[in-house]
Amino acid sequence: MSDHASDDHRPVPVVRLFSDAAAPARGGCPEHRRIRADHSVGGDDPRGHPAPRDAPLTFLDAALDLVEHRGWSVANACAHLSVPVERGRGGPGGRSAPLHTGLLAWIRHASRSYLDALARDEERDGLRRDPVFDFWVRQYMPDRGTPNSRPYEVCVRGRGYAYLAGAERVRELRMPVVGTANDRRRSRAEVAVAAYVLATGARVDRDACAARPRRYLGGAPYPMRARRGGDPGPPDRVRVVQVSCLDSSTAVLYDGSAADAEESFASAGREGLRSALRGGARSPGRDCLSCGARSGCGRLPRVPGLLGVRDRSLPRRSWSVDLGRRHRDCPARAYLHSLGLPADGDRAPADGLDHAVRAWLERLHTRLPLRPCTTGDLPADHGSWSAGGRRLEGEQARRGAAMIAAHSEVCPLHGLPSGSHVRVGRTLAADDTLANVLVLARPDLLHHRDGSWSYRAVGTATGPPRPDGHRLLSLEPRLALAVLFFSWGALPRGAGSAVELEVLTPDGAHVLSLDPASDRVGAEARRVVHALAGPWHRDLSHPPSPGRACRDCPYRRWCPDADDRWDVPVPAGDGPCPPPGRRTDAAGRGKEGEP
Question: Which keywords are on file for this protein (predicted)?
Fold first, then answer.
């Protein structure tokens, strides 16, 4: 296929499927799986800007390319990445500002961890792996005589290697992950697709792609590298290995013959890709951030002006209350969290009790048939139990069990008629088109009663009681955002709609309720949300704010400006509960649905 046509000639848009499309993501939008692949609908963002969660691995890949294909040192590669790139010059993401110092610190560590893992594997098996500059794609081009036929491509992300193991020609894909090698669980379908691409794919001409990046990101079929005399041809064996950029651990996901890889794809991978192309219902959520068809989606609520910002010139991002609060404490901490960098669990805020109690209740509320919680739903052993990945012991566990017992008195499922609509732990999304921001919220529970929706948030407390009325909103900004979701129509507001905070203590529970139709409540909600969102929206440099925020910051290892004066032990175990309003888990992740 020739790639010398003018950019004015629009090729038939490709259908490009990556291996992770073979299994739906939890909470993802079924229709987005199809839109993401089909470049005639929207496809991946043709501008090539990596989303925050993709940025670390995108820039890591750029650094490793310089090391493996140009022979640079890790230090020189990272120094090169720290230089701004003029937009349109082909740098990763077309950045026009220096990389954040915290992200650069992680890239240095991740590069060395990845290369250490590679060197260790080569020393163990005595095989030298040759880095492959081009990447492999399984391409299906249409027959010239078939009308309306589309090109299809099956792709996989990772770093490729080729080598001989005895008489066997081996292709190996090493897939970097930011945490440990076993942190990310990949489905059998995804691994089967990855192995299939290795076994049957041809090499893409990366030089041609780099010369015209917008053409290929925009949907033109990839230009394939012509076979030459020294090309070893198809492999006899393929391997897929997950590699930790944190501690150099590895996990072999697939190791088998090329023929077995094709059979595995037929049995475990092909149907997953077919289901991705069938799409399904549109479900607003995190996927709306990068969806190419969001402007015409009738399910994503439009809330122009909700954040109180009128500036569409900045890159599209997502925002949540937890992200806003984190940014208020330290912009660098908020940014490193949004990138999904590995967090130091030993330095995280001591709110394991809050997380475990809410996770236990979420599990109860998702039972079928739907039924209210009772005192019989407590942990069997009140002194030792776990939920949501948090284990509680001793007095802390007993306090948590008492809070769950208190919840049974105010469970919102009491008295709900059979068949009532209940949404548990589901991320809500709305598009502030004036700010170019996807606004996210995650109520603990939404329930529909007497024709009206109510928003319920749950919190644990051992300190003084919360204030009631509109004064509650400054202490609990997630309630303020819920009020605005009702006000702007992102949540349908009925005569009986309410925004509720359920406060659990070892001695009992009470529910504070706000009327989203109240002018006074609405005015205070706008003030609280605008005060949190405004400074975040105009900040593109994410400067550190050394001080008290350093004390429990789980990203200190990546921050060169951390203040050691606050390096004191963080209460854990049976220590005091966190102050009211803190809502981060032990890994520093929020619960308001930020990306």
Answer: ATP-binding, DNA damage, DNA repair, Helicase, Hydrolase, Nucleotide-binding
